[in-house]
Amino acid sequence: MSRSRSSGADGVLRISTGLVAALVALGAVATLGTVAFVTVAFVAAPGAAPAPISSLVYTLSLVLGALCIAAPLALGAALYLEEYAPNHWVTRSLGANIDELARLPGILWGILALALFVRVLSIDRPGVVVALTLGLIGLPRLTRGLRVALRSVAGPEREAVWALGATRWQVIRSHVLPLARRPIAAAFFATASRLVGETAPLLLVAAFSAPGLTSGAGTGAPQVLAIETFSAFFGPGGARMAGAGVALLLATALALRAIGVACDRDWSDH
Amino acid sequence: MQAVLFACAAAPILVSAVGLSVLVVEAVGFVVRVDLAAMLREGLWRPFAATPSFGFGGLLWASVQIAGGALLITLPTALAFALHVEEYADRPHRALWALVAEALAALPSIVVALVLIVGIAPWLDGVTDPRTAALLLATLGVSVLALPETVRLLRQGIRAVPEAQRLAAFSLGATRGEVVRHVVLPALRLRIPAGGVLAIGRALGEATLVTLVVAQVVPNGSVGDVAPLALTDGLVRLGLRSAPQGTLADQSLFALALVLLLLTVGGHLLARRYLRRERSEAGA
User: Fold this and answer.
1) Which positions in chain B touch A103 (Cβ < 8 Å)?
2) What does the pLDDT look like over B4-36, one tens digit per residue?
3) Quick one: which of A128, A140, A244 has its CA closest to A187?
4) pLDDT in tens, B38-77
5) pTM of the model
6) What is the largest CA-CA distance in chain B?
7) Which residue from B19, B76, B208 is facing A116, i.e. has the nearest CB?
8) Closest CA to B205 of A215, A198, A115
9) Which residues contact B3 (CB under 8 A, 6 or more apart)?
10) For a tag site, which of A46, A127, B191, B274 has the least CB within 10 Å?
């Protein structure tokens, strides 16, 4: 009796988890479908503005700049925490705090960046402020990704080099970094994919460092894709006018993520 | 070399500490200028009105509703998804499910906002009043956005269950479902609350989606006219009006940010405590 009851529960568990997973996948497909539909409707509409390709190029260059700012610091931090740091409360709390920063909501980064770059340093070039803000947001996330990447190098591979008498730095340079190059590249692409879609913090710093840009007034100057898309929601056509921007954002974020996943995979044995 | 690398690790902490101190100074400047008791008593957040009022109770309550709703949606969904991918799915399908999880993690919030506004909002039209509709849509949206992180945490936990324990249960005649219920789920007993707290933190902190949904679904939508519906919504609206430095409205931006910061960091600390307890129990 108890046998049949428990196998009934098993069936329910199996079917319900399968259903929920299918629902999640369906949601992902429906999201892509809706974005595609809105984009097609937008492009097919008479008098549609050209897709904001120039904004995408501008955004990607800012993200690249942000990664260039964050990369040396993040790599240094990850190397310290994974390779050098003694197991001590100072270093443990350092790692935990960086993880905490990586989870901080974007909008709070916007306020911190506003305080730092606009109020304390009074930088008055919006492009620079946006790149620095993205660098600030990306730094802890990239550090977290790089730490995972460094951890993927197995212990025996290090120990073999240690046994040959190499110094710590030689081990890192000749073995850890080359062996971890795939996950390291993946961490960069994953961070870039998140930065491209950041909207709220950029809205904040842009509003304070260049008033007028966020109201959607066409100044002719290139604009960050996320901000332009956000403004398009409040344009004459409403939400549907944001279709092209949203599609570009989604395609870019997914493409960067896909490149990251592809980097992380060892293609040689397939 | 070690000193240089240590400086790299300390840099993000120091930079955020400087930003944080500015934030706290401005927030304190705000608190000494307003009547705190009145702030808690009043329900309205109208920083730009002729006689501004800064009651943030309403914003906080809406944020709590959204986060609570997101918890109820995200946690069971993430658990079922993680169990399906790790325990039930066939090996060839597993990579496909992992791709779905990756794709979800890459979704920018503005994309989810568009789908809600264009795809789902029209169905709610006339069924509920606009404010409730906005609240429901925002809850659904932040649930989707909180999903990937929660799924990742739970999948890590499931993968950490030793294979030997599963095999032992199977050899005693347990079915796959019994293994899930009696071996895997008990091993997740601290990870599930940790995932829940992280989902709440993600839901509380989501700004773009909530602002867009509220401004689009509540009539006469344009940022600034509609009363904000959550802490983050209030922050974005304040930010977009960019009040001059030193004014009460400008300082209120930092005060509101401090409230959000304390809430999210508090949640993360709680999640970390659960995970630490899990580690120490696993080690014991």
Assistant:
1) 198, 201, 264, 268
2) 888 888 888 888 899 899 899 988 888 888 877
3) A140
4) 777 776 777 777 777 777 788 888 899 999 999 999 999 9
5) 0.86
6) 74
7) B19
8) A198
9) none
10) A46
User: Is B111 within 8 Å of A249 when comparing Cβ atoms?
Assistant: yes
- Mean residue pLDDT of chain B comes to 86
Burial class (CB within 10 angstroms; exposed 0-12, middle 13-18, buried 19+) of A185: middle
By residue count, chain B amounts to 284
Return the structure tokens found at B82: 């993680």
Probe site for chain B from A3, A12, A13 (most B CB atoms < 10 A): A13
> What are residue B45's DSSP bridge partners?
B54
pLDDT digits (tens, 9 = 90+) for A73-88: 999 999 998 888 888 8
| Cα A154 from Cα B90, distance rounded (Å) | 28
Nearest CA among B264, B271, B10, B12 for reference residue A140: B12
Q: Which of residues 221-240 of B touch A (CB under 8 A)?
A: 221-223, 232, 235-236, 239-240
Integer Cα distance of A187 and A102 in angstroms: 13
Structural tokens at position B260: 């959000």
ipTM summary value = 0.86
The answer to whether A38 and B205 are in contact (CB under 8 A) is no
Tokens representing A113 are 């960046």
What's the distance, CA A240 to chain centroid?
Answer: 26
Number of H helices, E strands in chain B: 14, 2
Which B residues 150-179 touch A at CB under 8 Å? 175-178
